[in-house]
Amino acid sequence: SPLRIGFTGLGHMGGPMAANLVRAGHTVLGFDLVPAALEQAEADGVTVVASAAESATDVDIVVTMLPSGRQVLECYTGEGGLLAAAKPGTLFIDSSTVDVADARAAHEAAAAAGHRSLDAPVSGGVAGAAGGTLTFMVGGSEEAFSDARAVLDVMGGKVVHCGDAGSGQAAKICNNMILGISMIAVSEAFVLGEELGLSHQALFDVASTASGQCWSLTSYCPVPELVPASPANRDYQPGFAAALMAKDLGLAASAAQAGGVAADLGRRAAEVYAAFAEGSGAGKDFSAIIHEVRAGSAD
Ligand code: NAD
């Protein structure tokens, strides 16, 4: 049955996610700080409101899709915040990618205000948001998860309940730590192969069916012409921007440090993507990291 949903953060991801909720027949009250985001949302059938608080007033569910944990906690608990505006028992779903500690703080604040909450970060990028095919990684109670299921299924293709508060964010950063490191590994292997006179095709034919097989190689290959969907085939237009990979690996590295986990390669990968995203990799897909490997190699 149609729900009333408050939605704060109508950017690259939140905009199309909110539009899909409207298309599914729900009433969406949307808010963002940026006028252009509100104009697009209005064109998509979102009911634009004047404040975050108004978007959370008398709704069943509040979704947030914001840049980082700081904005989430601010929107939840700051002056004119979402938690205070919502009726008791409202279900809060934060789909932003944030620090696990911030996610847990958001859950605690929601519970203290008498609400239920989920951390529900996504993968799949802007294309997944537009197509309603995102993967949701969800942390929080079984009961909140089952109540959220209907709306998550509208915005996503795959929805995984990962455990208690913070588990969705934990799954997201652990997955992306594998992805970020493995993309560097594949890039280093291709550049070493070039130096050794090995063709891209030969290395691909061997590694893609041998023990070097991984998603970074067979679905998102950093050299062109081997895999149809690779950003490498379109001059490394994202896809998944290097800056976002740097963000996610930074969250993984700080969680590892806080927990005393010796994730040395994860930390190193965070540094490599951060330097790349701030320099020649600005605006590029993260798989363009192969250029950084080449640039750092002796001729
Ligand atoms: P974005 O910057 O396009 O959108 C964020 C929106 O939040 C902006 O429109 C901004 O104006 C709004 N905002 C910020 N503070 C606000 C406030 N106090 N009140 C109301 N609105 C506010 O970012 P995005 O690409 O949509 O990403 C959103 C989140 O999703 C991030 O946490 C990101 O890490 C994560 N994510 C992004 C992608 C991707 O491919 N873009 C993929 C997976 C996850």
UniProtKB/TrEMBL annotation:
The keyword NAD applies. Keywords: Branched-chain amino acid catabolism, NAD, Oxidoreductase. GO terms for molecular function: 3-hydroxyisobutyrate dehydrogenase activity; NAD binding; NADP binding. Residues 166-291 form the 3-hydroxyisobutyrate dehydrogenase-like NAD-binding domain. Residues 4-163 form the 6-phosphogluconate dehydrogenase NADP-binding domain. The active site is at residue 172. The keyword NAD applies. This is Probable 3-hydroxyisobutyrate dehydrogenase. The lineage of its organism: Bacteria, Bacillati, Actinomycetota, Actinomycetes, Kitasatosporales.
